[in-house]
Amino acid sequence: MHPAGKVIEARLQHLETHLEQENPILLSTVQSFRQLDAVAFRLGLLEGDNSFATQIPWWPLISILGTFSAGKSTFINHYIGTSLQRSGNQAVDDKFTVICYSKEATAHALPGVALDSDPRFPFYQMSDEIEKVAKGEGERIDAYLQLKTCPSEKLRGKIVIDSPGFDADAQRTSTLRITDHIIDLSDLVLVFFDARHPEPGAMQDTLSHLIERTIHRNDTGKFLYILNQIDTTARENNPEDVIAAWQRALGERGLTAGRFYAIYNPDAAVPIEDEALRQRYETKRDIDLKEIHSRMEEVEIERAYRIVGALEKTARDIEERSIPLISSALGRWKKRVLLGDAVLMGGLLLALLIFSVNAGYWQGFKFAPPWLESGVNTPLPWVLTALLVIVLVVIHFAVRLAAARSLLKGLRKQVSSAGIKGNPAGAFLRSTKPWRSIFRKNPAGWGRKSKRQLREVLQATDTYIQTLNDRFTNPSGSETLLAAEPSSPVETPQVAEESV
Questions:
Q1: Rounded CA gap, 2 and 275, in Å?
Q2: What count of other Cβ atoms lies within 10 Å of the Cβ of residue 472?
Q3: Sheet harboring 108-111: ordered strands across?
Q4: 3-state class (DSSP) for residue 481
């Protein structure tokens, strides 16, 4: 059984049932996550009903972010072939909407709790995360999230997230936390901007949050930057100027990866009377839309690799980041305990020595207080000795506790800035329990068994990657049918986009 107990084990079994039907290739990875969890529970990196397997979405995830007037909902409606999302020039939806496939002919809208309690979705236990940054807001999860189902075949096997209109000045901390959470988990991120507002300077905060905080990521290839509603520039026939203005705005913020597109919705296009001009716009639009849709269709392949990559990264992070971080904290803790013991115990013993000297209890170097001679046949000396030992022990364990607490804030800050999964602070506290010697170098639970299990998980990830390669690639050129063609390489932004 899973170390956390029956609740999380039931969720993992549910996940295995889902994968057996939707993506059997990933079925074995759940068992590897169980091994990883066992190591983490032994170390104290996981507690309660938690699992590394529930910290990633198992369905391919496409998130759509952008300003409130950028046409995100219209784009989604056109992609799935039905008017599921409300659209308009003003903000019409203030929630993050998770859209997924359903066999039922009628679309349904479900409350945010449907997402918060299901580990298969990207917002599992999101209420806890919101509560951390906005006290009391975690209970209002339905005010932030909703789930919509739709029978569109375009949604089969994937999840699409439509974000509310993004205006960084007006957003609360909790909403920004959700946005960052989405970006971290997504396999593909479409960032929409509105070509009807050709002055990017009016959206400084939006650009800062959506771009400046993503340019240093190691997965920048998953970001597609889309200038939507470019058909509105046909009236002035200045698409090149608008595109150049946005590209300069992106470039000024250091954007060096991701693809830049210019599109518009064919169903809501501004009429273009000039035939040659219309053909030019449609050609460019169709090329870019085809490329965007192609990336969206390939996201299932990318998700399979990302899950295996997440498994490998989590295993390596435990050994290469969490353990050294905890060990370093234990080293500092040991020094503080020894220093505290020296100061407090030494101070107490020195005070007792001074008191005994002033009281005349010493005859030269011989300790000979009057009560010792009169009580030589009584238990008084032993009682006093035992009391002194008890006081010294109490001081030692009080120092241990105080030293551990003094390191917690800094340790948690390190963990947060490094983005390490699990709870190294909890593992550190487990390693400072009263029954553990301060001279033990390794964290609690970090022994041969844990090291062996981590090696097994890492070896398994290599096997999973090879299996995926055999499924999706064919370097030998044999006649074996492939499930899908490998995804095309991601283009980087060009200095000057081709004219519309």
A1: 65
A2: 18
A3: 108-111, 145-150, 96-101, 159-162, 61-66, 188-194, 223-228, 259-262
A4: coil
Spatial separation of the C-alpha atoms in residues 148 and 60, rounded to whole Å: 16
pTM: 0.69
* 500 residues of the chain, pLDDT tens digit each: 556 567 778 878 878 887 777 777 788 899 999 999 999 999 999 987 788 887 777 778 898 988 777 788 888 888 888 887 766 554 456 778 888 888 887 878 888 788 777 766 767 777 776 676 667 767 777 777 888 888 888 888 788 988 876 554 444 566 777 777 778 778 898 988 887 765 555 455 555 666 666 666 777 778 888 888 888 777 766 677 777 777 776 676 666 555 678 888 877 777 877 888 888 888 888 999 999 999 998 888 888 888 898 899 999 999 999 999 999 999 999 999 999 999 998 898 888 888 887 877 777 777 777 766 665 566 766 777 788 889 999 999 999 999 999 999 999 988 888 778 888 999 999 999 999 999 988 899 999 999 999 999 999 999 998 888 887 766 655 554 444 444 433 343 343 343 33
